[in-house]
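Design a sequence for this backbone.
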């Protein structure tokens, strides 16, 4: 019997769409053919196949709403309301995430300009080395629409998909309808989920693919996996790696459990299945990893980028301190980091500096305030606590969920051993939240059924508190606020794009106007490692923007005499070092420009 067949069909369809999108990017890139016409033809053909498949399908719909109890209806209304409001925000608000301005979105513009996804010279090497899976999906929207108006919908779809997957995993672990809805609510009401679901970050996308691996693997643990199912697992794993390598910290243990289960049912077939998964991952992520390897001599990117994120100490004391800091930051309440003093005390007893660079993201110090709600750092105290408690309880209970709980804790351990604490680390653990939501739901459902009213009502109140935290995040969360000052309805679009750095807006606008007045078409760009490149593509559409710096030895930058003008994002003295003194120009705040004499 197929568990939750409609949800499974949606999951499979999502995998197929993503795989087609990724392979299309890589194949068209080989011929420098990443253009609107080629992509439009691809999706017209895909639409024709989808219509034909739907005509042949005979979904078995049954009444849903009338069978629900009062609490279940409340959860459905809350989830539907959250995602409906997120849909409005996603459509109305332009992309304005800080990282997206620096490297997520500029690389899409370079791909469009070049017609391929080959590496190019840049000082912002995160544009090249960071996994591009989510951006490949955005690239299709960019080519089809000519802009970024639909970009936020990718993460929104991942958030909705994550809630559906959490509910299906709960069903696979034996949870009834109420438990499935609780799992969807625990995941879908988390403040970080609701804020990221309207952004162009990538954490919900990788959580979606990790959850997909989990639900597909659970289907196959007690039977011999067919080759079509093996290919789907391979595709989900490949999409995980292509989107963000940290997802493998959870997908890896899940795949290992699946391989062991298959080997028990036939050694040869199990080994071949494992090889098929590896081959599928290589097909999807291999071209990107090869580009990284040939450019940086390491498939994980340049040394400084790896070392800034990955743990460089693995002794028990350092790992324990890292785990405590990550937990405290994730579970912070609006009262602030009240537990940080105790953690510092433990670190002192263990002889570990809680802000040691080997276990802390460079340039940051512990602790850090995770509230008020901000998409880069907001905590998830209610949902996170429920997941940890549920996973702990079910780990010591006999039954089906026990193995799943063990895999969850292995993934948690892998994360704290390999990833440094960072102020914005709460968004990186969304894949763990998705995997843990079913465990929380199974534990909560048992408490909701408790004969003692005080127990059931207390747990209902806890769920309501989590939903209220989600409502606060979606209402006044930053940087896409629904109500209050600088909300998305009363703030002009350009101001929304610069809401993270409003002091930069006029600088960019003034410099862009100078470029247009000079008739500059090919514009050279000098910038810092963490400055904003994407606004130039928005303010200067149709121009050829080329980097004049390169951190890639084999990819030299364009010479300055090959451009019509130069934009420099640096203090004026720094820009003066690069700009020819004979080129006239000007300065506006942080931006200096120069025009090539005619």
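Sequence:
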């Amino acid at each position: 019997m197929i568990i939750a067949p409609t949800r499974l069909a949606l999951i499979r369809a999502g995998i197929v769409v993503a795989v087609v999108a990724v392979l299309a990017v890589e194949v068209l890139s080989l011929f420098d053919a990443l253009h609107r016409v080629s992509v439009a033809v691809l999706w017209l053909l895909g639409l024709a196949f989808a219509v034909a498949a739907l005509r042949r399908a005979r979904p078995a719909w049954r009444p849903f709403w009338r069978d629900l109890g009062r609490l279940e209806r409340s959860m459905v209304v809350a989830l539907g309301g959250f995602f409906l409001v997120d849909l409005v925000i996603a459509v109305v608000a332009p992309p304005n995430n800080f990282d997206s301005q620096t490297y997520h979105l500029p690389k899409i513009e370079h791909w469009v300009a070049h017609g391929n996804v080959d590496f190019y010279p840049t000082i912002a090497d995160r544009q090249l080395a960071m996994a591009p899976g989510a951006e490949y999906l955005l690239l299709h929207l960019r080519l089809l629409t000519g802009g970024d108006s639909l970009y936020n919908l990718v993460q929104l779809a991942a958030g909705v998909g994550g809630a559906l997957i959490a509910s299906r995993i709960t069903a696979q672990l034996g949870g009834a309808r109420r438990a499935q809805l609780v799992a969807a609510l625990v995941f879908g009401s988390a403040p970080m989920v609701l804020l990221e679901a309207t952004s162009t970050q990538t954490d919900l996308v990788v959580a979606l693919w990790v959850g997909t691996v989990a639900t597909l693997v659970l289907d196959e643990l007690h039977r011999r996996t067919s080759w079509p199912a093996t290919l789907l697992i391979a595709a989900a794993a490949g999409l995980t790696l292509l989107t963000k390598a940290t997802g493998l910290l959870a997908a890896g243990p899940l795949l290992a459990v699946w391989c062991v289960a298959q080997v028990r049912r036939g050694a040869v077939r199990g080994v071949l299945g494992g090889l098929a998964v590896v081959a599928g991952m290589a097909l999807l992520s291999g071209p990107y990893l090869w580009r990284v390897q040939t450019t940086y001599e390491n498939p994980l990117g340049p040394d400084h980028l790896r070392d800034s994120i990955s743990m460089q100490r693995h002794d028990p004391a350092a790992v324990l301190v890292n785990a405590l800091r990550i937990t405290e930051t994730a579970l912070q309440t609006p009262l602030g980091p009240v537990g940080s003093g105790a953690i510092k005390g433990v670190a002192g007893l263990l002889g570990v500096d809680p802000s040691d660079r080997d276990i802390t993201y460079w340039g940051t110090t512990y602790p850090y305030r995770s509230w008020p709600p901000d998409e880069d750092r907001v905590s998830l105290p209610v949902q996170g606590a429920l997941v940890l408690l549920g996973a702990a309880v079910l780990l010591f209970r006999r039954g089906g969920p026990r193995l799943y709980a063990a895999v969850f804790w292995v993934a948690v351990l892998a994360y704290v051993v390999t990833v440094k604490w960072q102020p914005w680390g709460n968004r990186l653990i969304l894949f763990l939240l998705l995997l843990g939501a079913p465990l929380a739901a199974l534990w909560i459902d048992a408490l909701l059924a408790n004969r003692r009213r005080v127990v059931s009502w207390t747990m209902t109140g806890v769920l309501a508190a989590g939903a209220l935290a989600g409502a606060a995040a979606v209402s006044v969360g930053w940087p896409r606020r629904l109500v209050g000052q600088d909300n998305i309805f009363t703030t002009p679009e350009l101001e929304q794009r610069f809401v993270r750095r409003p002091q930069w807006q006029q600088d960019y606008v003034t410099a862009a106007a100078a470029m247009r007045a000079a008739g500059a078409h090919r514009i050279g760009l000098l910038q810092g490692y963490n400055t904003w490149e994407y606004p130039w593509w928005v303010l200067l559409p149709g121009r050829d923007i080329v980097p004049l710096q390169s951190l890639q030895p084999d990819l030299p930058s364009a010479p300055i005499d090959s451009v019509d003008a130069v934009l420099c994002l640096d203090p004026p003295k720094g820009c003066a070092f690069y700009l020819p003194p004979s080129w006239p120009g000007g300065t506006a705040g942080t931006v200096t420009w120069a025009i090539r004499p005619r």
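The first helix runs from residue 5 to 30.
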